[in-house]
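Following up on my earlier thread - several people asked me to post the actual chain instead of describing it. Fair enough. Here it is, all 484 residues.
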Amino acid sequence: MNYKIAYIPENLELTHQLNENPPTFKYHVDNFKHILGSLTFLSSVGCTTEYKGDEFVMLNSTLMQAKVHNYKDHISYMVENNILKRTPNYIVGERSYAFQFTDKYVTNWVPSVITKPSLVKDITIKSRGRIKEGYLYTNLKSFFNDKLTIDKVAYEFVELAYNKDTKVDGTIRAMDKKNRRLRAIKNIETSSYYHSKDTTGGRFHTNITGMKRELRNYLKYDGKPLVSIDLKASQPYLIAAMMNKKFYSQTRSDLITMNDLILHSMKNKSAVKAALEEIKKNSSELSNQSKHHTSHYKSTLSTTSYKALSFMLEESFEPIAAEGVTQYLNDLFSPDFYATFGEKYYSFTHKSIDRDEIKEMIMIVMYSRNKERIRYDGIKAYRDVYPGVYNLLRLLKAGDYCLAPITLQTFESILFFNRIYKRIYNERKEIPIFTVHDNLICLEEDMDYVLRICEEETLRAIGLTPKFKVEHLNEGNINWELWI
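Reply from S.P.:
Thanks for posting it. Predicted structure:
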C-alpha cells in the first residue's frame, strides 16, 4: 500500500490554510495530516487525559519526531493558528503536552490520504514494531485480525447517543464524543489496531480497552458471539488480598505477594521512601530489629525499595492495617459490596445515594490525595468502617498518591496476564481472548473453560474466593433509558 489514511476534521482545508498562512519552517501537508490523524486515532482508543473537564489527547513528542523530525514546529503552528488547543502542564520526562481541536474544528472526522513516500514507509515500519512485550502479549495481539468485526447496528447507537449528548453537553462536546465512537467502529472495520503496554502498572491497552462499554456489545469474532468475564468489585477484592499479612511475606508461595509486584514493574523511590516514613511514624510497636532493617533498606533505596516496603509492612502489619479487616471481608463477600457499603454510608450521613455514586466514592478513597480525602463525608465513613484499609491506603499515598492505584494496577496485571492468561496460553493458546484490564472477553463456546480458569487461578493467587460476572455481549446489555 503506497498511501495511508488519516482522519481529520471535514472543515479543515489544510492546503488552503498553508497557502494563506505559510509556515516559516520546512513542512509537508502530509506531516500535518499524520499528526492530526494520530490525534484522532489515539482519541478513539482512549489515550486521553482530562483537563478542566475536557478530554485532551496525549501525544508523545519522541515518537512523533521519529516520523516528523520537526514535529514541534508543526504542532506549534497548529496551536498558534487556532487549529489545536494545548494543555499548559508539561513536565520534562514526566508529562507530555495534550491536545484537542479548537471549537471551530469539532466537526465530523473524514478520511484524508497521505502519499508522501518516506512518511508512508516510516509509518508502516514503526506501526509493525510498536511493542515487544513477550509471547503472551504477542499471542493476544494475534487475535486482532479481520475475524474481529463489529455490527453495523453500532452506528445507530452512536446517533442515538449523539442526540442525548447534545441535550446534556451541548453540540461541541457531543460532536467530539460522536467522532470518537465513530472512529472506534471504523478502526475495527478497517483493522486499524492499536496495542500498547504501559510501563507503570503493566496494563495492556488496545482498541477494545479504549472502546466505550456500549460499543463492545456489538463485537463478534469469526461471526460468533462473545462473552465478558468480569472480576466483580475487582479493586476492593485486590485490596482484600493486601489486607492479608502473607501478602508482605518474603517467603515464596502460590499467592501473589508484594515481591511479585517488585519484579513486575513497580519503580517509585520517593513514594516508597515516604511510605516507609509513614510506617515509622504511625507504628510505635516496631521492634528495634525492624527499625534497623528500615534504616538499612532506606540507605539502599533502588531496585530493592519495594522490598523494603514489603518487609516493613510485614513487620508492622498488626498496628497499621489489621483493624476492621473482618468487617471488610464480610462486606466484600456480601451479595453486593457497593450496596452494602452504601447502607453503612447512610447510617453515618443519613444521605441516600445510588450504587454508581457509592462506587465512585470508593474509587476516590483509593485514588485521591490524602489531604483531599478527609473533607469528603464518604471518606470519613469509609475510614470509620474500615480503619485498617484506610490506614494502608493512606500510607501508600503518603509521598505520591499515584502509588496506591499503580500498586493495584500492577497487581491486576500479574493476576490476569501472568496467572490467568498464562495458563490459558499453556493449555489452549488458540482460544481468542481479549483483555479489558480486570476482565476477559472470549467466545461463548469457550466460556465455561475460561471462567473455570479465572476462578481457579484467582483463588490460587489471592487466597480468597472470587466472584465473576458473565455477560453475553449484545445490545440487550445497554441501558437504553440513559440514551433516550
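The longest strand covers residues 4-9. That should answer part of your original question.
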